[in-house]
Amino acid sequence: MSLAWSEFLLVARFLKGEEVHPLEEAKLRTAVSRAYFAAYNHALKCACERDGFTVSSIASDAHGALKAHYKSRKTWRIAIILDELRQWRNRCDYNNESVQNIQAMVGSALEKAQSVINL
Q1: Structural domain includes residue 114
Q2: Of 25, 75, 76, 109, which sits with the fewest C-beta atoms within 10 Å of its C-beta?
Q3: Is residue 86 part of a domain?
Q4: What ranges in 55-96 are assigned the alpha helix state H?
């Protein structure tokens, strides 16, 4: 079954505080995406503040550059988790087909994002 991308407008209206209730898959896909960006931006801020890491926010592979930075610092766990979360985010943000096991993916994404923040 194909996802109705217009459901994400319901999610946006829900987040704005309007009285709508987004459909479950769009809501769960958004949760995976936001978990990734929480981990990515936290890891980016730490790399910049602690290590002097810099990357243009418009660089075509800023996400890959950050992952490479953590690998070069021998912080493999952060790099691996960011890579996995990004793959899940891409699947949720760009895949027209329903995402298999989305409930489990959301739970894992939240846990993994929290572990990046804790590290």
Answers
A1: yes
A2: 76
A3: yes
A4: 62-72, 76-94
> Under a CB-based contact definition with an 8 Å cutoff, are residues 67 and 83 in contact?
yes
Enumerate the β-bridge partners of residue 2: 97
Q: What is the pLDDT of residues 13-59, one digit of tens each?
A: 887 777 767 678 888 999 999 999 999 989 998 999 999 998 876 66
48: which 2 tokens? 């910049």
Nearest 5°: CA angle at 93, between 90 and 96?
105
Q: Is 62 exposed, middle or buried (0-12, 13-18, 19+ CB in 10 A)?
A: middle
| Predicted pLDDT of residue 3 | 58
Domain that holds residue 72: 24-118
- Enter the pTM of the model: 0.83
Are 81 and 115 a contacting pair, CB within 8 Å? yes
- For residue 45, what are its two tokens? 């801020």
CA distance 99 to 103: 9
Please state the domain count of the chain.
1
